[in-house]
Amino acid sequence: MHQFIFAFLGTLGFTIFFNSTKNIMLITSIVGGLGWSINLLFANLTNSSVIGVFFGAFLVGILGEIAARILKYPVTTFVIPGIITMVPGAGCYYTILYITKSEYNTAAFYGLETVLISISIATGIILSAYIGKIYNRLKQNRND
Amino acid sequence: MENKPNLTRLLNLAVYAGKILLENGAETYRVEDSIERICNSANGVYAEPFPIPTGIFVSLKYEDEVYTSIIRIKKRGINLDAISKVNDFSRNFMEGNLSIDEGFRILEEIDKSKKYPPIIRMFGGGLIGGFFSFMFGGGSLEFTASFVICFLSIFVYDYFNKYNTPIFINTIVCSAIISFLSVICTFINNNVSVSLVIVGSIMPLVPGVAITNAVRDIISGDYVAGTARISEVLITASGIAFGVFIVLQLWSNIFGGVF
């Protein structure tokens, strides 16, 4: 529960930093907090941060699609600050730090983890985006 | 065809919209969609845009004529408000509610619109730093330190950005300042964990969005755009690590600190 609050406020900071529109700041931060909580939950269940991040990013993507349709803002404005808590910024930093310290084994470990995590974030988001597109098509078919 | 649309102006309008989108951190497919949407709003026009993070190439085809425009994108940041405004604009324009002149006026307004005032941005930066160091396992000491450090580093970051400093230099200076201040914190209170403070405070600089967008572009088949973004990620990450490394190395060799 505290982790949700930390992630909520961290995301709120990023919405300000990314100059998000005032009306959607709170919603975006809730999305970010929920994504981070789900990430922690699944990471504990499966003992793998990559899978945790995948589910977290997928949830952020789905919530972003829903919020975008209700509030009429582009999906990106919810998704970019929403995934930021899961983004492997620290991993990216450790990779280069260990390279400069010539500890290449540790660097390779962090580097691979960073790449895998960013792939799973991207996969989560793309999957949810396609679900959004399929939903749009179904709705169009019903109207025709 | 009875009245031919003013294709040059239409093309310029579309490219201008694409430029604002790319400069404010939109994804490649969104830029492509918006340019297509604006161009295809005119009857019988077919547009073929090719945006990459450092430029946009657009060809406009109308019957047997071809118009082309190439522009360079030199600065890149993230401004979600501008993205959503341009997105709204392109939808409005497609529905034919707006003339081209009105379009230019609206886009100029979006282009000139200000970000939040510095003090609020600095406060937001403080929130980022503080709560991320909490999330990485810090305590209230680390929270306070990162909050203050991030607050100051956003000021420096924005100052450099105003003069279009290359992102590599900018991140080196900012991360060096961040790690210097974190080291100072350990002199004030011995229990502060330097690495937690640093990891929390560099979060605003870290190219997290860029790396995710890069992978996303590559997965969806925009290989050139994706590779360009990956270079940006590598340069920014090296800049951060370099800035931090200089300070920490000096600290550990002169004062015997451990990191």
Number of E strands of chain B: 3
Number of domains of chain A: 1
- What's the tally of helices of chain B? 10
Largest sheet of chain B: 3 strands, antiparallel
What is the ordering of alpha helices and beta strands of chain A? HHHHHH
DSSP strand content of chain A = under 5%
Quote the average pLDDT of chain A.
86
Strand arrangement, largest sheet of chain B? 1-2-3
Helix amount of chain B: 55-70%
Q: Categorize the overall geometry of chain A.
A: globular
Q: Which structural category fits the helices and strands of chain A? A: mainly alpha
Element-level helix/strand string of chain B: HHEEEHHHHHHHH
Low-pLDDT residue intervals, each spanning 5 or more residues of chain A: none
Largest sheet of chain A: none
**Into how many domains do the coordinates of chain B divide?**
2
Report the average pLDDT across residues of chain B.
85
- Helices of chain A, by number, come to 6
Q: N- to C-terminal separation of chain A?
A: 46 Å
Strand content of chain B: 5-15%
Summarize the amount of helix of chain A as a percent range.
Answer: over 70%
Largest interface: A-B, 46 and 53 residues
Task: Throw out a few tags for this protein.
heterodimer; A: 144 residues; mainly alpha; 6 helices; B: 259 residues; Pantoate--beta-alanine Ligase, Chain: A,domain 2; 2 domains; 3-stranded antiparallel sheet; 3 strands; 67% helix; elongated
